[in-house]
Design a protein that fits this description.
single chain, alpha+beta, L,D-transpeptidase catalytic domain-like, 2 domains, 8-stranded mixed sheet, 7 helices
Length: 251
């Protein structure tokens, strides 16, 4: 409603300005009204609206990337809105994990946002206490062995018990901000290889980490490391209500 009112005032100002160009009899009161509309500083609401989710641009990119039947449109829109809001990212790379899909299907997508192309799509494991074929339960608590939703920035790599791994910094308090404390990292694992999930079987599960097939682990980590955005989606009501980084499809 406030955005609509601002638009009306702008149209009024334009209309009155037109009268100014064609008449020298405009009253002093009308001139003051124009000045109050055209030179008033932007409010916090105006600033927020100016940075609001661009649904048309998101849909255009979704179509250009040919993500239909691959990634949930809602997942992509939320990922896109958060990507735009996260100002301290260092790479134009967006990684989406769509946990509404089963673990034996590709559900992790690495997207080059500059060149508008998908760099990788792959299966990815979820935490063993998040569910069987589907991840449906999530936690930010150490020892839960569950996956965590929301936005992350990728950080440094290291050699650990699971080989070449990538640390993650969760950006959303209460949802994933304990990721580093919980040692939630991206790493490769034999149980995440596609051969595990044949004949309708599910992928193996982790202790909460998004584990990748061993052959893709290193190239994906090297692509997304050092400050790119990762978004883990599950169409979770609690997250959808509380996250400050997402906008809905209908925004």
């Amino acid at each position: 409603m406030k955005k609509f009112t601002s638009s009306i005032l702008l149209c009024m100002a334009i209309g009155i300005s037109g009268v100014m160009l064609n008449s020298q009899t405009l009253s002093k009161k009308a001139e003051q009204a124009i000045e109050s509309v055209t030179v008033s500083p932007k409010t916090d609401i105006d600033e927020k609206e100016s940075k609001s989710f661009d649904a048309l641009q998101a849909k255009s990119l979704f179509d250009e990337l040919k993500l239909e039947n691959e990634v949930s449109y809602e997942a992509f829109c939320q990922a896109y809105s958060g990507y735009e809001k996260i100002t301290d990212k260092k790479k134009e790379i967006l990684t989406i994990i769509d946990f509404t899909k089963p673990s034996n299907k590709d559900r992790m997508y690495v997207i080059d946002m500059k060149d508008k192309k998908i760099l990788y799509s792959t299966v990815v494991a979820h935490g063993k206490n998040s569910g069987e074929m589907y991840a449906t339960s999530f936690s930010n608590i150490s020892g839960s062995n569950k996956s965590s939703l929301g936005f992350y920035l990728t950080s440094e790599t290291y050699q650990g018990g699971n080989g070449f791994s990538l640390r993650l910094d969760g950006l959303e308090k209460g949802f994933n901000d304990k990721a580093r404390e919980r040692a939630i990292v991206i790493h490769g694992a034999a149980y995440a290889n596609p051969s595990v999930a044949v004949n309708g079987r599910r992928l193996g599960r982790s202790l909460g980490c998004p584990a990748l097939p061993q052959t893709l682990n290193k190239p994906i980590i090297n692509t997304i490391k050092d400050g790119s955005v990762l978004y883990i989606y599950a169409n979770n009501d609690d997250y959808n209500k509380k996250s400050e980084l997402i906008d809905s499809v209908n925004s």
